[in-house]
Write a structure and sequence with these properties.
Helix content: 40-55%
Number of helices: 14
Order of helices and strands: HEHHEHEEEEHEEEHEHEEEHHHHHEHEH
Radius of gyration: 24 Å
Shape: globular
Strand content: 15-25%
Amino acid sequence: MNEKGGNHQLLKQKNSQLIRKFIYQNSPVSRVEIAQELGLTTPTITGMVTPLIARGLVRETVSVPEEAKSAGRPRMMLEFVPEAYCICGVDVGPYRINYILTDLRGNVLACRRTKQTLDEYSKTLELLSAQIPDFLAEAGVPREKLLGVGVCLPGMIDGSVDKIYDTFYEGWTEHSLSAELGQRLGIKVEVENNVRARAICADLFDRSVQAEPFAYFFVSFGVACQMIIDGKVLYGQFAAAGEIGHTVVQRNGPVCPTCGNRGCLEALTGERAILQRCRDIMAAGSPAVLKQLCPNPEKLTMEHVLKAQELGDWEVSHVVEDAIEYLGIALANTINLISPRAVVLEGRILSTPKNQAMMRSVVEQYMFHVHVGITDFKFLPFDEDRGARAAASVVVKEFLSRAN
């Protein structure tokens, strides 16, 4: 292919990608609106859209704007077809492995929750290789309708180049989960960091954030803050961007079992750290409320902790409030550094109105005054299936970025 022909083909592929993504993000939308926004001609739009309609990815609908109803001038609109494909999302975490089936818009079609957790690589690979086909068969998904499988898990993972740099368990960095699992399943597999996937989900499926840059602040077993800037997920070197949980906030503090440093945010505010502090208090003979809720310290959960806080257990409340103080300071520092227009916050500890108000108060106390009242805060309710749904969104993101 000569240079001129090659450039023309690349331009055509790029335009097709832009049009497909624009229709997905703005449905329903007219050809004229697409042409104006992307700087393309209407005939070019029609030429690019026709194959998408033929493939069943886009359909035409009739819209009659209010101002045109009296004149009877309907407009032909284009919209993405959510049911054109379905996606399997898998959330592999320290608490459980969840499976979900969604359409292209993230609407949940089926789900399965298990008690298995992230483990040594070969065991996890065997488990996923067996359970994913079983889940899909149970859901009755025809193979031709399955766009792909998305898997998210904690760790330093760069889904853009299929590279796992670090996870909770050793041995993972020697493998390519997407390639090895994809080969076993015979299905395209995308792998991504669990919090980065959540940021993609908020941007792509939920459209819950209409401003950029935005930060996704997540508190669970660990703590992370992933960012989307100019429509792109920030990875950084070794996919380590967003690992706010391993910034040191207390000199000579407790040792973090993940990074080995003393006094990092995860060691003070992660759910593992909060539960251990509460177990230590229980072992010392109190608090009474928490013991009534959960007599066995080994079975203690964040739900027990939050309930004890709600019931007025002052020792548990102190543990929770202390964690929120550190979380708020860390988030305020992040806002001062990157100046996001919006922040999405998720975590069990931030699921109650009281703790949300406390978090907002701490953040506003420590962040630079120009951000107060300007930065948009969005607290998400706890959703056990959000991680798996986020994994599905990674597949859709990759699909929209394809050249054809």
